[in-house]
């Protein structure tokens, strides 16, 4: 008996031009194009194993070891159904000898290597890993099927997931067609083009239960007048300008647009009725610190050093070039000290020493330290230092998340 099984991992992506608003909620078609940086899977990733077998009685999915319901007509069911359809059309209808995997039920196990408590969105890497593992299982891989084609299906799991089908710098083109067949991800530049881009994720403590992206953006579409201005007059020019900046490795322009678009996104949230607040006082203090760092650096004739961006939550993602990341971590530590003994993640830049990371906190000469208060230990509860990364990976059979019987290990 053959075992039909594949394991894939997929990365997280953090947008620099934000997706916020749908013109079709079922197909997940956006009201504007967006652009993101794919982050390194060596740090943050979702891993998924899919197996097709004639003995399975229903499609079943386990997320982090727990069975997750596959609701009829829901996002998971749509992705699995669309992948089976593609398998049938592209492989089985053309080759009568190909096994009819599209007719078998699947068992899928998925695992995120980052804690949900970190408040990092897992839907993008999760749906990208799901689609990638099914694509390998069904032999829907290049040159037969491109990541852009797979992105059409991942998009129907979660909009931002379509951008995790590529590494590097990725655009999601909104498209025009009603069936969504032109609303897909394209690679703007691969990781190898600008590997110098690093990211520092500041995990900000948040006890409140936030508004989900899905419901928040719908409320914005229904009530915000500012959103109409953003999608018509702001985003199209920014998409073009930031793509050029990435191609030219022009960090100043990349940073200015990234910060402006994060501000614009949070402004349309505030313009929603009732208003949505994703950033908190700590998030805003981080903005003030980054703005002052850039002011000082521009004054010295060295240009921008860092760009902040915030998704639908209080965590900051700071993009910077490798040469500046140590100084930025030192500055963040000076304002937002870490719990001693934890977060060894950023110690790498200090030569990997295991001493208390807070001893590295430093404010640069000439920096106006009045721009923000110094916060208590734990206000920023974790720092993750990562960088631009590659697209989904095919993993070896011994990395399978399913045991011999097709049940999570
Ligand atoms: C603020 O992709 O999570 O992170 O399509 O409803 O699943 P759904 O929403 P989702 O929204 C992400 C919004 C964002 C901006 C972005 O990633 O572009």
From TrEMBL:
<dbReference type="InterPro" id="IPR029765">
    <property type="entry name" value="Mev_diP_decarb"/>
</dbReference>
<dbReference type="InterPro" id="IPR041431">
    <property type="entry name" value="Mvd1_C"/>
</dbReference>
<dbReference type="InterPro" id="IPR005935">
    <property type="entry name" value="Mev_decarb"/>
</dbReference>
<keyword id="KW-0752">Steroid biosynthesis</keyword>
<keyword id="KW-0067">ATP-binding</keyword>
<dbReference type="GO" id="GO:0004163">
    <property type="term" value="F:diphosphomevalonate decarboxylase activity"/>
</dbReference>
<comment type="pathway">
    <text>Isoprenoid biosynthesis; isopentenyl diphosphate biosynthesis via mevalonate pathway; isopentenyl diphosphate from (R)-mevalonate: step 3/3.</text>
</comment>
<feature type="domain" description="Mvd1 C-terminal">
    <location>
        <begin position="199"/>
        <end position="394"/>
    </location>
</feature>
<dbReference type="GO" id="GO:0005829">
    <property type="term" value="C:cytosol"/>
</dbReference>
<dbReference type="GO" id="GO:0019287">
    <property type="term" value="P:isopentenyl diphosphate biosynthetic process, mevalonate pathway"/>
</dbReference>
<protein>
    <recommendedName>
        <fullName>Diphosphomevalonate decarboxylase</fullName>
        <ecNumber>4.1.1.33</ecNumber>
    </recommendedName>
</protein>
<keyword id="KW-0753">Steroid metabolism</keyword>
<keyword id="KW-0444">Lipid biosynthesis</keyword>
<comment type="similarity">
    <text>Belongs to the diphosphomevalonate decarboxylase family.</text>
</comment>
<keyword id="KW-0547">Nucleotide-binding</keyword>
<dbReference type="InterPro" id="IPR020568">
    <property type="entry name" value="Ribosomal_Su5_D2-typ_SF"/>
</dbReference>
<dbReference type="InterPro" id="IPR036554">
    <property type="entry name" value="GHMP_kinase_C_sf"/>
</dbReference>
<feature type="domain" description="Diphosphomevalonate decarboxylase-like N-terminal">
    <location>
        <begin position="10"/>
        <end position="185"/>
    </location>
</feature>
<dbReference type="Pfam" id="PF22700">
    <property type="entry name" value="MVD-like_N"/>
</dbReference>
<keyword id="KW-0456">Lyase</keyword>
<keyword id="KW-0756">Sterol biosynthesis</keyword>
<dbReference type="GO" id="GO:0016126">
    <property type="term" value="P:sterol biosynthetic process"/>
</dbReference>
<dbReference type="InterPro" id="IPR053859">
    <property type="entry name" value="MVD-like_N"/>
</dbReference>
<dbReference type="Pfam" id="PF18376">
    <property type="entry name" value="MDD_C"/>
</dbReference>
<keyword id="KW-1207">Sterol metabolism</keyword>
<dbReference type="InterPro" id="IPR014721">
    <property type="entry name" value="Ribsml_uS5_D2-typ_fold_subgr"/>
</dbReference>
<dbReference type="GO" id="GO:0005524">
    <property type="term" value="F:ATP binding"/>
</dbReference>
<keyword id="KW-0443">Lipid metabolism</keyword>
């Amino acid at each position: 008996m053959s075992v039909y099984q594949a394991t894939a991992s997929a990365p997280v992506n953090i947008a620099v031009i934000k997706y916020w608003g749908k013109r079709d909620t079922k197909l997940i078609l956006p009201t504007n194009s967006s652009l993101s940086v794919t982050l390194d899977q060596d740090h943050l990733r979702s891993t998924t194993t899919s197996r097709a077998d004639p003995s399975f009685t229903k499609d079943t999915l386990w997320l982090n070891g727990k069975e997750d319901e596959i609701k009829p007509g829901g996002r998971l069911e749509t992705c699995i159904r669309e992948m089976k359809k593609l398998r049938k059309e592209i492989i089985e209808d053309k080759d009568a000898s190909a096994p009819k995997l599209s007719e078998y039920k699947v068992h899928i196990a998925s695992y995120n290597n980052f804690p949900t408590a970190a408040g990092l969105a897992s839907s993008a890497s999760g749906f990208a890993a799901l689609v990638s593992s099914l694509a390998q299982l069904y032999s829907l891989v290049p040159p037969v099927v491109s990541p852009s084609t797979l992105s059409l299906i991942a998009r129907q799991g979660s909009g931002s997931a379509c951008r995790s089908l590529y590494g590097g710098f990725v655009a999601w083109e909104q498209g025009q067609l009603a069936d969504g067949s032109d609303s897909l991800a394209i690679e703007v530049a691969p990781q190898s083009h600008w590997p110098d881009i690093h990211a520092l994720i500041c995990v900000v403590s948040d006890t409140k239960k936030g508004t989900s992206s899905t419901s928040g953006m719908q409320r914005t579409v229904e009530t915000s007048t500012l959103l109409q201005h953003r999608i018509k007059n702001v985003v199209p020019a920014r998409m073009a300008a930031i793509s050029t900046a990435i191609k030219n490795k022009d960090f100043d322009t990349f940073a200015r647009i990234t910060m402006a678009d994060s501000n614009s996104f949070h402004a349309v949230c505030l313009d929603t009725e009732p208003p949505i607040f994703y950033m908190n006082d700590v998030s805003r203090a981080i903005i003030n610190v980054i703005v002052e760092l850039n002011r000082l650096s521009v004054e010295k004739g060295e240009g921008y050093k860092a760009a902040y961006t915030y998704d639908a939550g209080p965590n900051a993602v700071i993009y910077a070039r490798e040469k500046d990341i140590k100084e930025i971590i030192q500055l963040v530590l000076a304002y937002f000290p870490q719990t001693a003994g934890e977060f060894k993640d950023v110690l790498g830049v200090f030569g990997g020493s295991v001493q208390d990371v807070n001893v590295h906190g430093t404010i640069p000469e000439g920096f106006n330290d009045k721009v923000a208060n110094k916060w208590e230990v734990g206000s920023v509860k974790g720092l993750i230092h990562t960088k631009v990364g590659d697209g989904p990976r095919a993993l070896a059979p011994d990395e399978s998340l399913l045991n011999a019987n097709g049940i999570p290990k």
